[in-house]
Amino acid sequence: MNVRPDFSKNANHAETAPAFLSVWDMHSYYGESYIVQGISFNVHEGEILALLGRNGAGKTTTLRSIARLGNPQVLKGEIWLDHQPLHRMASHEAAVAGLGLVPEDRRIIPGLTVEENLQLAQIQPPIGWSIERLYDLFPRLGERRKQEGVTLSGGEQQMLSIARALARDIKVLLLDEPYEGLAPVIVDEIEKTLRLIKEQGMTTILVEQNAVRALQLADRAIILDTGSVVFDGSAAEVLENEELRHEYLAI
Ligand SMILES: Nc1ncnc2c1ncn2[C@@H]1O[C@H](COP(=O)(O)OP(=O)(O)O)[C@@H](O)[C@H]1O
Ligand SMILES: [Mg+2]
């Protein structure tokens, strides 16, 4: 088990960035509250990384820090995406650089149909995923293209929220508890779709309370505990390590 990720001295230089997405010694604060306390990890191109940990461990704060939302404030550290310094960017610039955050609350825009939600997300000219390609991936959205987005079921809204991120030309998908509140049969469907998205080359960070489901899908896992990385290794290792699961994931 590799408890601390191994970083070369030059990990903070774009030319030698060790992975597709690199978070290096990141410290994040909400006002005076010191939440993410110097975390480092790598995400390799095309993999699914599960970001796990108990409630309040700092998972959402980590995703919001990477997406440069401003709250939390990242006061120290570097974040590199495909040789681009996200840590020097505002959130809209990070979005253009290829970051796609799907927040927990899904944020479907009221008054717009499914298709309008997707069209609004799509950049011009559309070099991200085409709307037809998204309907192939999410047939339910195709069937409901004329329906107002906010009237969809919870699972369908989650699909729309993911599809909307893909409609931009993103390089990495950050999912914050996509299975929350959904029936197991819908979780199955979303999981299947996430596998298809991976097969098409997407890099994904998956934050989930449903750790077993996330680990079954993920290649690797990071476990956070009070804002620090306490495990960095393969998803299979976590599934096999009862002590680790019990101590940090309560499963
Ligand atoms: N907007 C905020 N202002 C102040 N503290 C916050 C805010 N959001 C979260 N926190 C605190 O940061 C810590 C980590 O929260 P969070 O990243 O949401 O955890 P997780 O997603 O792992 O459940 C918690 O102690 C939480 O209370
Ligand atoms: Mg959270």
From TrEMBL:
Domain ABC transporter residues, every copy: 21-251
Keywords of the record: Amino-acid transport, ATP-binding, Nucleotide-binding, Transport
SUPFAM superfamilies: P-loop containing nucleoside triphosphate hydrolases
Entry GO MF terms: ATP binding; ATP hydrolysis activity; branched-chain amino acid transmembrane transporter activity
Listed CDD domains: ABC_TM1139_LivF_branched
InterPro entries linked: AAA+_ATPase, ABC_transporter-like_ATP-bd, ABC_transporter-like_CS, BCAA_Transport_ATP-bd_LivF, P-loop_NTPase
Domain of life, source organism: Bacteria
Pfam families linked: ABC_tran
GO biological process: L-amino acid transport
SMART domains listed in its UniProt record: AAA
Family: Belongs to the ABC transporter superfamily.
Protein name: Amino acid/amide ABC transporter ATP-binding protein 2, HAAT family
